[in-house]
Design brief:
Layout lengths: L1 E2 L27 H8 L6 E4 L5 H9 L3 E5 L3 H12 L3 H12 L2 E2 L2 E2 H8 L12 E8 L7 E6 L5 E4 L3 H6 L6 H12 L8 H7 L4 H14 L6 H17 L21 E5 L1 H7 L13 E3 L9 E5 L15 E7 L5 H15 L1 H5 L2 H5 L5 H15 L6 E4 L5 H13 L6 E2 L3
Parallel strand pairs: 1-14, 2-3, 2-12, 3-11, 10-11, 12-13
Antiparallel strand pairs: 4-5, 6-7, 6-9, 7-8
Helix pairs in contact: 3-10, 4-10, 7-9, 7-12, 10-11, 15-16
Length: about 425
């Protein structure tokens, strides 16, 4: 075994910000591409049997590889598909316009949501402000607001105004909103499971009301398939920014559990929709993104299988792979629990069922992880090709889990580096 030769495949450039970034494993951009080229594999088919980091597959497809990605998470699938489409800014903005134009009563949905966050500038009283609120855990109103005034240039943290307090009274029947979101995940029930209750309880009432309104209108929207998928990707950002897992100070928190911090931010969720466009514009030109068994052209692209790789029982139908390339995951209860519930909000309870295991399992220790990841190594061992992987956020336990799983499937460690 060669250790430190080469010493480390470091990322050439910082990975661009993307939706769900704080839950996904960190990826040093260019590292898997470097590993393939170091191994003398410059083209052909590669398999990502886990598919939990869209950027790794996207960069390989950009470099001309044909990538089969297996992932049973529809949230990750939607994000990856929209990014690969590389929609121009005009299409992304048109999708937001279609969403905002929906009516709730006599009022446009966009205006209704914006009005819930209307916050006058403490200096000039203009309503042309960008605001986020600061909350303490278990309190009924924010203790402060962070305001940027687009009229006079004021920028600072100040006390909340009477207008802010009045806005909190305009959210309507919060129990009705909570019930609607519960019914999207578990229709016909009034008692959520512990995991689903934990998710819904991680949202402030105003965020619950906004998300309920958006989800309720999503099914009736009259738009194109492409713009509907864009809206779904943008709403995933809303679902994440709407929860209380945005602690103060912000830093680069990477939640592993659904645990509410002592102090946290609340964001204007219509601003979130508008700003999330940047997190979908990662490519200058589109990458072929097809659903398996459809395959991309020889020039490169992604064939996406929406399930666990082990469920493809006839391996003879698969392409001839030159390598396995993936980012090894670390268990993330927050991501999988949120994603199971968000899938139901977007596509109904049948989508949640695909991830029901995430709602049933409450602990993800290294022993469970070793057993889970060993199935991937066992399945891919028969291909008899190099298994190239990045393993971020390592601890001793997870090093042991990865090595145990690989050894059980008769893999041998040839090259390794640690950074």
């Amino acid at each position: 075994m060669n250790f430190g030769k080469p010493p480390f495949f470091s990322g050439k450039n910082p990975s661009p910000p993307m939706i769900l970034e704080r839950y996904l494993p960190p990826y040093p951009s260019g590292s898997l591409l470097d590993m393939l080229q170091f191994s003398g594999i410059n083209n052909g088919w590669v398999l990502d049997p886990i598919g939990n980091q869209p950027l790794s597959a996207i960069e390989l497809a950009q470099a001309g590889y044909k990538v089969l990605v297996a992932c049973n998470n529809p949230i990750v699938a939607r994000i990856m598909g929209v990014i690969c489409a590389a929609y121009p800014i005009s299409v992304l903005q048109a999708a937001i316009a279609d969403l905002g134009a929906l009516k709730r009563g006599e009022e446009r949905l966009e205006n209704q949501i914006k009005n819930l966050y209307n916050s006058p500038c403490p200096s000039c009283l203009s309503s042309k402000t960008i605001v986020r609120y600061l909350w303490k855990k278990n309190q009924n109103i924010p203790f402060a607001r962070d305001v940027i005034c687009q009229e006079c240039g004021y920028n600072g943290i100040t006390k909340i105004s009477e207008v802010d307090e009045e806005n909190l009274k305009k959210i309507g029947n919060i129990q009705l909103h909570r019930s609607r979101l519960l019914q999207r995940v578990l229709p016909g029930t009034t008692t959520p499971s512990i995991a689903i209750k934990e998710v819904i309880d991680s949202y402030l009432p105003r965020s619950i009301a906004v998300i309920s309104s958006l989800v309720n209108k999503l099914e009736s929207i009259n738009t194109t398939k492409e713009k509907k998928e864009i809206i779904e990707a943008l709403l995933i950002q809303v679902f994440d920014n709407g929860n209380m897992l945005w602690g103060i100070p912000s830093g680069r928190a990477r939640p592993k559990q659904i645990s509410i911090p002592t102090e946290y931010y609340e964001f204007n969720l219509w601003n979130v929709i508008e700003n999330a466009i940047a997190n979908l514009q990662l490519l200058d030109k589109p990458i072929p993104f097809l659903q398996y068994p459809d395959l991309p052209p020889d020039s490169g692209g992604i064939s996406f299988y929406p399930g666990r790789i082990q469920s493809i029982t006839n391996k003879d139908d698969l392409p001839q792979f030159s390598a396995i390339t993936t980012v090894l995951p670390r268990p993330n209860q927050a991501m999988w629990t949120f994603n199971a519930v968000w899938s139901g909000w977007l596509w109904g309870h049948q989508a949640t069922q695909r991830l029901k295991g995430a709602l049933e399992r409450r602990r993800y220790d290294w022993i469970w992880h070793s057993q889970a990841i060993s199935k991937t190594f066992e399945y891919t061992s028969s291909f008899n090709v190099p298994f190239l992987a990045i393993a971020p956020e390592l601890t001793n336990s997870y090093i042991l889990a990865y090595f145990t799983a690989a050894s059980t499937a008769n893999f041998s460690l040839v090259n390794a580096a640690y950074h």
